[in-house]
Amino acid sequence: MPHNDAGVRNRLDQQVLPGLGNLRVRELSVGTIERHLRLIAGKHGPAVAKMTKSVLSGVCGLAARHDALERNPVGDSGSIQTSAKKAPKALTPDEARTLLAELDADGSALALVPSTTSPSNTTLVDATLPCADEASGNRMGSFG
Question: What is each CA distance from 21 to 2, 66, 85, 89, 93, in whole angstroms?
């Protein structure tokens, strides 16, 4: 559910009313809602479609509690698919050395990295970065 009234109002104004505002509440079906949510997901992305689904669920739930609908059709609609996130990639030793060299060369970049020792610490990230084991070529995935 959008976290505030402005978010709910925005979803109503931007997604719900333009696409479904010409229908009567009793004309809302699972199929109509699913088609509308797929259109929104394709046009604006899955996050906006999920928020819109949440707002529609609240509207239809209220209508069902007031007997304008027999049940909430949003509850029977399918889930909104999101794309799979890419797995994190560990740096190779060469990539780590290149990154460290670039950070050492750019003093303003180091100012953005929090220091655990002192503000003058310019070796904030050193050879202890979790990267590929140089001897075996194996990648390590956690800080040690």
Answer: 20, 19, 34, 46, 57
- Give the whole-angstrom CA distance, residue 53 versus residue 61: 12
pLDDT digits (tens, 9 = 90+) for 68-81: 999 999 988 888 87
CB-based contact 10:54 (threshold 8 Å):
no
Structure tokens at 54: 């949440």
Quick check: 92 and 119 in contact, CB under 8 A?
A: no
Which residues lie below 8 Å from residue 116, measured CB to CB, with a gap of 6+? 124
Report pTM. Answer: 0.55
Whether 88 contacts 31, CB under 8 Å: no
Fill in the DSSP letter of residue 91. B
CA distance 132 to 144: 13
From residue 88, give the alpha-carbon distance in Å to each of 23, 131, 134. Answer: 45, 12, 19
Q: Above 70 in pLDDT, residue 124?
A: no
